[in-house]
Amino acid sequence: MREFDYQRLVIGYHGCDASVRDKVIQKGDQLKASPKRYDWLGHGIYFWEHGPARALEWAKEQKQRGKLKTPAVLGAVLHLGSCFDLLDAEYTDMLAEAYPLFKDSMDATKTPLPRNKALNKTDKDQLLRELDCAVVNWTIKEFERGGTAHFHSVRGVFQEGDKVFTDSCIRLRSHIQIAVRDPACILGYFQPPSKR
Predict the structure, then answer these.
(1) Which of 20, 21, 125, 180 is packed most tightly, with the most Cβ within 10 A?
(2) DSSP 113-125
């Protein structure tokens, strides 16, 4: 196994169809990184950190949208490796400093700046995070191109949903998410026990 700089093990949960979970558990298949342009932590394999209920809720939402048949959750033991951790001011400062350079690079090529957008009329959280995804991906590529760092994962907190009560700053569906960029960070998978 490769040596990782960021010494943190976490349990992650991936919402998916039961057929995907079964192929991973029973046949040793691997999850694929999401290349979507709105994935807020950039490209990677997404997990909810210590959040099996939120992973299942997401899978159920995908079923309602017709994107999967049988909602399920796949557990994983993750070693975050060298993590671009957006819960650490060192990395949020880096991202803030990178944004003007990203914007300049877009302007230089006359490429329109991506925008974060709402998924639908009821989406107050702007779930389509095209700008966030583009800036995170660009920043990490710049570090890697310069040879100053290589990042195995990205971690961030996502404030989502309605307030838990009037005037609260706590939101009903907030969570910590991890985007695994290097599959070597996934040390193993397991099937979480189902709640009755």
Answers:
(1) 180
(2) PP-EE-SSTT-SS
